[in-house]
C-alpha cells in the first residue's frame, strides 16, 4: 500500500491475536502492529509485556480489562494501561456501543461519558466503537478538550467504583472471582507452519475389465430379446 504508507496523515494498523502473524510484518516499519488480547486480564506484569514489545507496537484490550464491572457497576480501574504505557505500548479499548444495556450505571446511560472515561480519564490511545458518529461528535466537541479553562463546561469522566460505594454494603452484589493476570502463554504463539506444495492428485483409474464384460453381456442380452421378439411375430 504505497499510497497509504507515504501519507503521513494516514496510519496503517495490522491487528491479530497471533504473534506469529504480527512477526511477518516486523520488517515493515510503516505499519503499526496491534496485538489483540481478547481475554480479560487484571494486571500486566513486566515479563509478558516485554514479550508483547517483541511483536507489537500496541494492544487492543476489552473494556473490562481496563474498567471491570460487577452487576452493572464499575468497581475500579486496573493498572494495565499504565503498565503498557510504561513499556511504550499504545492501548486501544474495544468495543464501545451506544445501547444502554451495554453501559455501566456509572455512565448514566450516556455513551459519551464512557468515551470520556477511557480517553480523558484513563488515557487510552484509541477506542474501537460500533458507533463512530458518537466518537466523532465527542472528539470534535470543545468541552472534551483538556485545554478548556476550569471555569467552563467540560465532559467529566466517571470515577470507577464511586457509584458502587453509595450502595449499602448489605445490598451490594457479591464479589466475583479474581481475573487472572496476563501470562507469557497468553502472548506468544507457535510459529506458522511452512508453506508446502499440495500433493498431486492420483491418476485416474481405467474401468475394470469385469465392467467391460458386463456391458458386453447386457448388449448381447438386448440382441437376444430382439431376436426372440421377431420370431414370435413370424
TrEMBL record:
<dbReference type="InterPro" id="IPR017946">
    <property type="entry name" value="PLC-like_Pdiesterase_TIM-brl"/>
</dbReference>
<dbReference type="GO" id="GO:0006629">
    <property type="term" value="P:lipid metabolic process"/>
</dbReference>
<keyword id="KW-0319">Glycerol metabolism</keyword>
<dbReference type="GO" id="GO:0008889">
    <property type="term" value="F:glycerophosphodiester phosphodiesterase activity"/>
</dbReference>
<keyword id="KW-0732">Signal</keyword>
<feature type="domain" description="GP-PDE">
    <location>
        <begin position="1"/>
        <end position="139"/>
    </location>
</feature>
<dbReference type="InterPro" id="IPR030395">
    <property type="entry name" value="GP_PDE_dom"/>
</dbReference>
<keyword id="KW-0378">Hydrolase</keyword>
<dbReference type="GO" id="GO:0006071">
    <property type="term" value="P:glycerol metabolic process"/>
</dbReference>
<protein>
    <recommendedName>
        <fullName>glycerophosphodiester phosphodiesterase</fullName>
        <ecNumber>3.1.4.46</ecNumber>
    </recommendedName>
</protein>
